[in-house]
Write a structure and sequence with these properties.
Number of helices: 7
Shape: elongated
Distance between the termini: 19 Å
Number of domains: 1
Structural class: mainly alpha
C-alpha cells in the first residue's frame, strides 16, 4: 500500500511539472521572456530615477535596455519567480541607487538558474 502511494505521489509530481510548466501555470515559475522584461523594466526605472536625481534630467543607458541579456535570461526557459523577484528588488533598491542598474544587475542577477523547459534542471526535487 505504501509503495503504491509513493509511486502515485511521484507520478503526480512529474505530471504536474510536465503539464503546468509549458503552460506557465505553475505559481512559482515564470517564463524567461516575462522575467527578462521585468528585469529590463527595473533597470530602466532605476536609470530614470538615478539620472533625474543626480543630473536633473531623465536619461536611460543602452545597457539598461539589454538588462535581460546581461542577466543571461533565456526567453524559452522557466525561472523560479522568487529568484527573479529578488533580482528585481536588488536593482530597484538601495544597491541599484548606489551602484547603478548595470552593476547591481551583474552582482544580483548572474546566479539565477533556469528551471528547464518542462521538467526542470535537474529533475524536480520531491
Amino acid at each position: 500500500m505504501l509503495k503504491k502511494l509513493l509511486l502515485g505521489a511521484i507520478a503526480l509530481s512529474l505530471t504536474n511539472c510536465l503539464v503546468l510548466n509549458p503552460l506557465g501555470a505553475n505559481l512559482d515559475r515564470e517564463k524567461g521572456s516575462v522575467a527578462a522584461g521585468r528585469i529590463t523594466d527595473a533597470a530602466i526605472q532605476t536609470d530614470l530615477i538615478n539620472s533625474t536625481l543626480l543630473a536633473g534630467r531623465a536619461s536611460v543607458s543602452i545597457l539598461s535596455l539589454l538588462a535581460g541579456d546581461i542577466a543571461n535570461i533565456e526567453s524559452d526557459k522557466y525561472y523560479i519567480k522568487s529568484d527573479v523577484d529578488k533580482c528585481v528588488d536588488e536593482i530597484t533598491g538601495f544597491k541599484g541607487f548606489v551602484f547603478g542598474s548595470l552593476i547591481s544587475n551583474i552582482i544580483s542577477c548572474q546566479d539565477i538558474q533556469s528551471d528547464g523547459y518542462i521538467t526542470g534542471e535537474p529533475f524536480p526535487s520531491f
